[in-house]
Write a structure and sequence with these properties.
The complex is a heterodimer of chains A (597) and B (327). With 597 residues, chain A is of the alpha/beta class. Chain A has twelve helices and 25 strands. Chain A starts with a strand and ends in a 9-residue tail after the last helix. The N terminus of chain B is likely disordered. Classes of the chains: A alpha/beta (597), B mainly alpha (327). At the A-B interface, helix 2, strand 5, strand 10, helix 8 and strand 11 of A face strand 2, helix 5, helix 7, helix 8 and helix 9 of B.
Chain lengths: 597, 327
């Protein structure tokens, strides 16, 4: 028998960004909220105060989800075998209070307006025949204009750094000329420029591109956020992604949303609690979450609203595993929509330049402290005759560089006998030791781009592998298609042109995209699987993340994305949460039921 | 099923340890970069011969083949005080030190991995982590590879993967690092004996390099015969990676002694921060420091303390909320 707790208004899976935002907003409305967090609790002080340790946090993944208890399997296509990711590779989900929002990079892009009405836009511009074979892209149920007030509010609430490029339709010098129109400028100026970023920007400008400093949820100056308390500006310490920020400059749930929720006395986070299922009654209505408590026993937390607010794949899996007579294939899966449109954002380094004798101080700062160009993102360029759709931003991958993970693959003059049987340089010996000295002298150009949706790329439950409780792991079926291969080839040419202009002494170029590999880090931006739409026939949830067949179950995060635009997802994840909460507060709480029918 | 700890090949065993009845079973050859499936259960801790409690005399012999002076390496010197012998025995120390000296060569004037304490780093790592030093999902079944296009018939407990596809799946072995060291080190010595008639640590640089290249490339024949349970490249990659960690990780882990690794590459290590002016300084330089030298964030618990960055009070740093979870 499960240990039953008193009913609360809202229960959330995990205590990451969307759960924390929800807790802050709904406790302010007088509601009681409980978050069930599988990890522990870490705070800026003292947990992040003394954490500059690459081995512990980057090499050994201290802050990541416990893959040893619950992993994911992957196969490139349905005919191939699926094997588990046994050690961390392609993506880095978080754990602990704050979720991945503590160890993230805090790069903050709004998607382009044409990313939201993707199908309509591309069909109108290029015709239906120009879209890739087997694609399953569709329009989002929300538009840029729907989300714009929420983007802006989130920026003001939390503080954001950036150079405004489009203010109410007026283009401003120095910002991103391609961004959607903003109703307000960024609250703070952009983060400081770096040597590598400047080198890239000068070359890009000579080629007629318009580089700008990337926007970020890292404060460039002290800022008093919605808590009414100040937070420090960035110290550019270089221990950022995979680390918690010791001065609160990097936004996290701990810095802003959680303290406010706790202030009300109506919020509780239960740590070391592993959610196992959404319970339903005889009618199929969800009644709460079951979980394994830290005492090792089964618990049940009844709630009027259930927020499925873990990592993308955790959300999809929980819905799939929550089977009952009323929901035989899992919650939200009555029409076979659950698991569709699995996407994984492309991040590649097509061109790496060595600048012998120069130092770029790449161990300082963050991924976000460089310039970027946006000419080749999404549909910012004419795709006629190119044989692919979508695009990518280009930026120098040169900040927060730490030594253990970055002394290999340094470009160097080719000499005989240095390659191993795989054709890779031997990363050992005197030559390796000598190359190491150049670890701060090279600049990779990165592309981060669209991952479109295809019928074949999806999530389901694995038949062979289980978690520590014996329940099936989620299986990822995902591979690049010709569209991504051509996209990469095109972007790699653009990177090469910029690199030519940067004038390296040695370089490594990779025109072809490498095979998708679950063992190599790509991005943590896995999306889809529980997509939002306007119709139960093409989606799992409506535009508020409300599950079509279970109106008191709300899904949050990137699982809702019908496909993955060419930028980091958190901006849209958080603004979409704001958008959904507005409807929950103004309509659902007064009249619980379907917000769209 | 715990992994059986394999005895050392006779070539490097002392008479007391030798068991003539122990014949290594015949196994099929492993293909390049593929891992043999084994049980995912982890070996129970074995009593490590020669392991000290961290006090007293280290179990490093001052004489005998394993202690022979090496170019750029003095095992006895590398094992001063009670630094070594937590996990590795003297023979293993000699082999690891010899590998480390080839992966990142050095001498007193231009320190390499051995001078940086990488052997101590590895010894500590293996003593500390009975299974994997990092999070690893170890559940069965494991992958078995096949060559060609025809997948072998299904077998319980086996997932067949085409050999040229295995690389796409990341780490797929169920054998934890300790066992890979235990299996790999004596086999490297056995290979050295076969090819050159002496232990690995006693060979000259060029012969050692050739053997390490043979491991990295999973060379055919004699290498494949010896490395029948773990591919030679897996063993080599693991040790190589640990040597790099021992050169470049924070000194708190026993390597990067006196910050020589960071000095070598010009990394300031653990700093509280850098200014926007320093971000742009082409001649920036700051002496490296480790975590131990990183100043504490004094005053983060005091409401009245201010610091110089961005005008925010350190007193406003987000600490555990009274209503928040304890851990």
């Amino acid at each position: 028998m499960a240990i039953e707790h008193p009913e609360v208004d809202v229960v959330t899976m995990g205590a990451g960004f969307t759960a924390a935002i929800t807790a802050q907003q709904l406790t302010a409305e007088g509601l009681s909220v409980v978050s069930l967090e599988k990890g522990g609790a870490k705070w800026t002080w003292p947990d992040f105060a003394h954490n500059h340790d690459e081995l512990r946090f980057t090499s050994r993944h201290e802050l990541l989800h416990e893959i040893e208890k619950e992993s994911w399997t992957w196969r490139p296509d349905p005919a191939a075998p699926a094997l588990p990711m046994r050690q961390y590779g392609a993506f880095h989900p978080g754990t602990n209070m704050g979720g991945a929002g503590t160890h993230w990079s805090a790069v903050m892009w709004r998607f382009l307006p044409s990313d939201y009405d993707w199908l309509t836009h591309h069909t109108e511009r290029y015709g239906p025949d120009a879209l890739p074979e087997g694609h399953s892209n569709q329009d989002w149920p929300v538009s840029y204009d729907d989300l714009e007030p929420h983007f802006t509010q989130f920026e003001i609430d939390t503080g954001m750094s950036g150079q405004t490029g489009n203010l109410n339709g007026q283009l401003l010098e120095g910002g991103n000329p391609f961004e959607g129109p903003r109703s307000q400028p960024y609250p703070l100026p952009p983060l400081a420029p770096t040597r590598a970023g400047s080198r890239f920007a000068e070359a890009a400008e000579r080629l007629g591109l318009r580089p700008f400093l990337q926007p970020s949820s890292i404060l460039s100056q002290g800022y008093t956020d919605m808590t009414g308390k100040p937070r420090s500006g960035c110290l550019y310490c270089g221990y950022c992604t995979r680390y918690g920020c010791e001065v609160d400059a990097k936004l996290s749930p701990q810095t802003t949303f959680l303290p406010l929720a706790f202030d009300t006395g109506r919020y509780e986070i239960r740590t070391h609690c592993y959610v196992t299922g959404i319970e339903t009654d005889n009618t199929g209505r969800a009644t709460g979450l079951t979980y394994l408590g830290r005492d090792g026993r089964e618990h049940f937390q009844p709630a009027r609203i259930i927020l499925v607010s873990g990592y993308t794949m955790s959300n999809v899996r929980l819905l799939m595993l929550s089977r009952s007579n009323a929901h035989p294939d899992g919650i939200g899966n009555a029409r076979g929509q659950l698991g569709r449109n699995a996407t994984h954002q492309i991040l590649q380094l097509p061109s790496i330049g060595m600048f012998e004798g120069e130092r770029f101080n790449t161990f300082m700062g963050n991924t976000a402290t460089t310039h970027a160009v946006y000419e080749y993102v999404g549909d910012n360029f004419d795709h006629t005759g190119l044989g692919f759709v979508g695009g990518a931003q280009i930026f120098p991958y040169a900040g927060e560089r730490l030594p253990i993970g970055n002394v290999e693959g340094i470009p160097h003059a080719a000499t005989t006998g240095e390659e191993n049987a795989d054709g890779d340089p031997r990363e050992w010996g005197q030559a390796f030791k000598d190359r190491m000295r150049n670890w701060d002298s090279f600049i990779p150009l990165a592309i981060q781009g669209d991952s479109l949706a295809y019928e074949q790329n999806r999530f389901d439950l694995d038949p062979n592998f289980t978690d520590f409780l014996g329940r099936p792991l989620l299986r990822i079926t995902f591979d690049w298609t010709d569209n991504e291969r051509r996209l990469h080839a095109f972007l790699a040419e653009r990177c090469s042109e910029i690199m030519d202009e940067m004038g390296p002494t040695e370089r490594t170029d990779q025109p072809e995209i490498e095979d998708y590999n679950i063992g190599r880090y790509q991005t943590t931006h896995i999306q889809g699987g529980c997509i939002a739409g306007d119709d139960p026939g093409n989606s799992v949830t409506n535009r508020y993340g409300q599950v079509w067949d279970a109106p008191n179950v709300f899904v949050t995060g990137a699982a809702l994305f019908p496909q993955n635009p060419g930028a980091n997802p958190t901006t849209t994840v958080t603004a979409w949460m704001y958008y959904a909460l507005e409807a929950i507060k103004s309509q659902y709480l007064r009249n619980p039921g379907e917000l769209m029918s | 099923m715990a992994q059986q700890e394999r005895p050392l090949p006779t070539s490097v065993q002392t008479g007391a340890d030798r068991d003539p009845a122990d014949e290594r079973p015949e196994r099929s050859r492993l293909s390049r970069r593929s891992f043999l499936a084994v049980t995912g259960t982890l070996a129970t801790a074995a009593v490590v011969p020669g392991c000290t409690t961290g006090r007293g005399t280290p179990a490093v012999p001052q004489e005998g083949p394993s202690a022979a002076p090496q170019p750029g390496l003095d095992v006895a010197e590398a094992a001063t005080g009670d630094r070594l012998g937590r996990f590795l025995d003297p023979q293993q120390i000699a082999i690891v030190a010899a590998i480390a000296a080839r992966v990142i060569p050095g001498d007193a004037d231009d320190p390499g991995a051995v001078e940086a304490g990488a052997v101590e780093y590895i010894d500590r790592l293996l003593a500390t982590h009975e299974s994997y030093p990092q999070r690893t999902y170890t559940q069965r079944p494991f992958a078995q590879t096949y060559e060609g296009d025809t997948e072998p018939p299904p077998e319980p407990g086996v997932i067949w993967v085409r050999e040229d596809q295995l690389d796409r799946y990341g780490w797929q072995s169920g054998i934890p690092p300790r066992e890979i060291y235990r299996m790999g080190l004596p086999r490297l010595d056995a290979l050295a004996e076969q090819r050159h008639g002496s232990a690995f640590a006693e060979l000259g640089d060029d012969d050692q390099d050739a053997l390490l290249r043979a491991l990295e490339d999973d060379e055919d024949d004699d290498v494949g015969e010896l490395f029948d349970e773990v591919p030679a490249s897996t063993f080599f990659d693991l040790v190589r990676g640990h040597v790099v960690e021992g050169f470049l990780a924070d000194p708190v882990y026993g390597g990067n002694r006196d910050l020589v690794g960071w000095e070598h590459i010009g990394f300031p290590g653990s700093q509280r921060g850098y200014s926007p002016q320093e971000l742009l300084d082409p001649n920036f330089s700051r002496p490296p420091q480790g975590l131990a030298q990183l100043p504490m964030m004094h005053g983060a618990h005091r409401e009245d303390d201010h610091h110089d960055h961005g005008g925010a009070a350190l007193g406003s740093i987000r600490r555990r909320h009274p209503n928040g979870p304890l851990d």
